[in-house]
Amino acid sequence: MYPVSTVFARGLGSRASSIVSTLGGRSLGQINAESGTLSWASDGRKVTGKLDMSVPDPHGTLAAPDGPLGWIGQQLVVRSGVSRSSYEELIPCGSYRIDDSGSVEQAWSLHRKSLLAVTGDFWSDIWSDIWPGALTLVGPQKVVRRGGKLSPSAVDLLSILEEDEFIGLEQPLPGATIRSEVLRLVGGRMPVASSWSGVADPSVPASVTYDANRLTAICSLAAAVNAVVWAGRSGELQFVPQPAVGATPVWTADATRAVKIIIAGNRTGLYNRFITEGTDANGAALRGVADVLDGPLAVGSRFGTVTYRHSDPLSKTQAAIDASAQTYRDRIVADRTVRVRITVPADPSLDPLDVVAVTDPEGRVWTGPVVSCTMPLEPGVMVIEIPVPLSAVMP
Q: Among 98, 273, 287, 389, which one is most buried in terms of CB atoms within 10 A?
């Protein structure tokens, strides 16, 4: 959670945000958004952020290729927080590269400006036979561009690494550590945080091979130290450690602040049959099967059968392959979760994977790491999601 003053939380009713456009380190000016939304989500390997806005463009110039909302590399630096007449505290909320300027159809108008207009009454006595009626002198035509309202969208800087695919297979340098290898893979494409608190830095096995893109490779390195990749509040790549089981919440909300709580359940990941496949020492096929046999999600129940398959090249006997299937069943069943979607007052100081505790009107306390968040740039409410054990919502 980003450190803020004691005044910050109390002043979020006077929320304000600042957005500055940059290109190659050069400021292109402030973006005056009418409204906007910041969102981020974790998939267990990385945190991806997105910025959507509605921006007036009366002259139709903001979305030019080299304009403040252009699409040739412009980045939007966002700060948000409290702004009052006598107090302001804005905190960094990330850097986002514009993917779509959200440009509207351009239109032009032709205008002529009247330089002189004299009524016919004045001329009737003198020039009535020569120039009856009114006299109007008109200036040259002027072309005026009419704009409209733009809806640009931008994504965090990890997208730069995701687009950069390897030309061929690549391996780490001899003796590389996790951090030194990340620095090599990033190679100046985006900033990297000077340190990653709570993350180990072991050696990278020489057998590691990269064959996709740079972000996928970095996510694999992060998984090796039980961390996820995040672009950070200042646009710097960093590893965020997965929260420990039973970690103390850093942010709380009681029933008076919990506007809405929704259990967002679905069948995804609810496996109840686990099959492990391998071969024995002679190359003959081995298969182990472990089923969930009790409860509402058991094989043979109305839930149905959902299969999880896994290859285990290390198990070389039937007993070992059976044990492997049972191990996967026990681990995955124990890790089953559902997402609880909670609407609370928006607080931009909340970080990805911060552990929160929210009390609902019935007195239940929902505790877990925040895996997604959507909040407006202006005062309002945010929607966060936390995973909770399936047992907490099952009858």
A: 98
